[in-house]
């Protein structure tokens, strides 16, 4: 029995060509989680909506559910974030990490998660304009990990709950660790690094501004944030490797 078509807000997570003229589009939707769909004929020059199915665009899409792939029947642009992102390497690579990490954190089709969708859209909008796109990315990742239920401990010891501030961090231990609990291989860090991460996890942008003059603290916070993310995902993110090589 054919399920009814539906409309939803969506952003494109990734795409790849399929057949001679079609394209597989992976969408993060607001009401149906992660949806894999096929856009038929969009690689032809006369495609009606192929140019809209691209990265960094918020869409209103029309979908017909299928056994393995939905069919994307239409797409209207709601917000166009690409201008201001694709021209700048740091913004572009940071925005790519947002999309890739969201795709890993999102649930499968029918798994509604409007928080994640709204966070992605808001982050793309901020990356487009903020002079510090990597900081915006780290804030998104910390908040997304908190939403997923595995945020790093940034004050109390992740193992014994001894109050901080502490000066060591290990993703496998759960974040900040005290002298008694720190495992081998823990990162030795100044307490300001964890404080910055706490500010970013709460979206306290004004309070975080003094750290913009301390590049070593910014770099350490980014390194710990992404290490914690990839440890819990149990995989490396290619887009993150490209960002950090830039």
From TrEMBL:
InterPro entries (alphabetical) = ARFGAP/RecO (IPR037278), DNA_rep/recomb_RecO_N (IPR022572), NA-bd_OB-fold (IPR012340), RecO (IPR003717), RecO_C (IPR042242)
In this protein, which residues make up the domain named DNA replication/recombination mediator RecO N-terminal?
A: 5-81
One GO CC annotation: bacterial nucleoid
**Keyword Lipid metabolism belongs to the record:** no
Q: Name one Pfam family in it.
A: RecO_C
Q: Does the keyword DNA repair apply?
A: yes
GO biological process assignments: DNA recombination; double-strand break repair
What UniProt keywords are attached to this protein's entry?
Answer: DNA damage, DNA recombination, DNA repair
Q: Which residues form the signal peptide?
A: none
> NCBIfam families, from UniProt?
reco
Job description of the protein: Involved in DNA repair and RecF pathway recombination.
Question: What protein family is recorded?
Answer: Belongs to the RecO family.
Query: Which HAMAP family does the annotation name?
Result: RecO (MF_00201)
Q: What is this protein called?
A: DNA repair protein RecO
